Amino acid sequence: MAEPSRSDRSPWNWLLIVPIVVPLLTPLYNHDGPRVAGFPLFYWLQFAFILLGVGTTTLVYRMSKRSRSRS
Question: How does pLDDT run across 47-62, given as a tens digit for each residue?
Fold first, then answer.
């Protein structure tokens, strides 16, 4: 019996490291300013990290799905 091919071998999966590593770079948000709508940098940058994670995950999903359908 042949083993089913693994679907997690896409090179696009390496992009998933980006939303993990970027929030660990503390010099990015080790400031009080600039403030957006009265919120310090730390708070709105955390929201930007969420958007980065969602965008990256969506991109990896779509690109790995596309490469699977070509195989």
Answer: 999 999 999 999 999 9
Residues spanned by the domain of 33: 25-70
> Number of structural domains, the chain?
1
Within a domain: residue 10?
no
Q: Which helix (H) or strand (E) holds 45?
A: helix 41-70
Q: Decide: 12 and 63 in contact? Cβ < 8 Å.
A: yes
Q: Is 29 exposed, middle or buried (0-12, 13-18, 19+ CB in 10 A)?
A: middle
Instruction: Name the residue with tokens 């089913």.
Output: 4
Q: Is the CB of residue 37 less than 8 Å from the CB of residue 70? A: no
